[in-house]
Structures are given as C-alpha cells and as structure tokens.
Amino acid sequence: MASSTGQKNLRGKFVCVLLLLTCTGLGVAQEPSRKVLKKVEAQYPAVLKRRGIGGVVKLRVLIQANGTVKDSQVVGGSPILADCAQKAIKQWVFASAESETSMEISFVFDPNSQSE
After folding, report:
1. pLDDT tens-place values along the chain, 116 residues long
2. CA–CA gap between residue 105 and residue 41 (Å, rounded)
3. Which residues pair with 93 in a beta bridge?
4. Is 72 exposed, middle or buried (0-12, 13-18, 19+ CB in 10 A)?
5. Are 62 and 102 within 8 A, CB to CB?
6. Residues 42, 83 within the same domain
7. Which helix (H) or strand (E) holds 18?
8. What is the DSSP letter of 68?
9. DSSP 8-class letter at 112
10. Structure pTM?
11. How far is it, in rounded angstroms, from Cα 81 to Cα 111?
12. Three-class SS state of 109
C-alpha cells in the first residue's frame, strides 16, 4: 500500500511540474505589443514599382527597452525588397518598456499604390 501511495504522490508532483512548465512556456511565447511612436515608410525602389514588382517583407524586430530598434531579421517575403524594409525599420521608435522585446512586422510593397 505504501508503494501505491508513493507512486500517486510522485505522479501528482510530476503533473504539477508539467502544468507549471506549460503555463510558464505560454507566458514567454506571448510577446507584448509595443506602441509605435515614430514610423518611417520603406523606400520603394522606383524601378521595381514601374515593373510591377511588389510583395510583402516580414521582419522579426528586436526592440531595446528604450524603444529603439536593436536588430531586425528577415523571416519571410520578397528578398528583393528586404533591404528597403530593414532600412526603414531601423528608424522606427517604439514606446519604452522594462526590457527588450521582439515583434513581427510586415511591410507591404504595392506597385499599384499611388504613393511615391
């Protein structure tokens, strides 16, 4: 009987630890959204726009606690437009926070848009 009780107790502890780890993991996966204070539009190369070459560039952006962009990494989209998006994001400023955070931001390059 003692062995059965010990196994139940051990299983209970194991389940508690798993729940704790799962909840902690969920907390880390949720990234806070930081308000953009200064947004710089990406420069759309005129030659690409004239030729109808557009697309989306998705960046993972590392934002310092003071709100400036520390680094950006292309995680998807048009490689020919990635440099334009990265140059623009480096100039963005976000609201301050207690620590560094990361966000995914997409830039849309639409050759049919009227903006220059």
Report:
1. 545 555 555 455 443 333 333 332 222 233 448 999 999 999 999 999 999 999 999 999 999 999 999 999 999 999 999 999 999 999 999 999 999 999 999 999 999 987 65
2. 13
3. 38, 68
4. buried
5. yes
6. yes
7. helix 2-29
8. B
9. T
10. 0.69
11. 12
12. strand
- 86: CB partners within 8 A, 6+ apart: 59, 72, 74
At position 7, the amino acid (one-letter code) is Q
Residue range of the domain that includes 87: 36-109
CATH number of 94's domain? 3.30.2420.10
The reply to whether 40 and 59 lie within a common domain is yes
**Distances from the Cα of 104 to the Cα of 61, 72, 80, angstroms:** 6, 9, 19
Secondary structure element (H or E) that encloses residue 86, with its range: helix 79-89
* Residues 21 and 44 placed together within one structural domain of the fold: no
How far, in Å, CA of 17 to CA of 56, rounded?
A: 42
Sheet with 69-77, side-by-side order of all strands = 69-77, 55-63, 101-109
Task: Copy the structure tokens of residue 56.
Answer: 């989306």
Is 114 inside any structural domain?
A: no
Tokens of 34: 């930081």
